[in-house]
Amino acid sequence: MIKQSVSVDKLIETARHCLKEGFVYPVLHTAVDYETHLELIYILRNLEQGDDRILSVILDANAPSVPSLTPWIPGLIFQEREVYDLFGVSYDHHPHLTRLLLPDKFRGHPLRKHYTLAEGEVTS
C-alpha cells in the first residue's frame, strides 16, 4: 500500500496514472476536517494484485473544491456526493452534485468541526 500526497492541480493526472496501473476500484473516498484545512482521501484498489493506492489531497477549509474524478472513476459518483453533503467539498464538473443523505433544505455540513446544531435546521 502506497500513500501519495497529490496537489489539487495534479489530481486528475495522478488518478489517471493509477488507473493505467490497474488501480480501478474505488474502495473509499472520504474527508478529514483539521479545522485549518481538509484532507481528501481516496483509496483505489488493484483487484488483480490485491494492492491499494491511497491518494491524499489537502484543501483550503474555507473554500474546499476539487475536480470530480467521476468521468474516469464512475464508482465515485455517490462517494463524492456524500463528501459534498457532509463536509461541503465542491466537486467541479460532477454530473449530479446534490445532497445524498440529508434533505435538500438542510443547512450546513454536519461533519465539519465548526458545524453547530442550530445551523442544521431545515428551512421551509
Automatic annotation (TrEMBL):
It comes from the Bacteria. It holds the Pfam family Complex1_30kDa. SUPFAM superfamilies: Nqo5-like (SSF143243). Residues 6-119 form the NADH:ubiquinone oxidoreductase 30kDa subunit domain. Belongs to the complex I 30 kDa subunit family. PANTHER family: NADH DEHYDROGENASE [UBIQUINONE] IRON-SULFUR PROTEIN 3, MITOCHONDRIAL, NADH DEHYDROGENASE UBIQUINONE IRON-SULFUR PROTEIN 3. This is NADH:ubiquinone oxidoreductase 30kDa subunit domain-containing protein. It comes from Sulfobacillus thermotolerans.
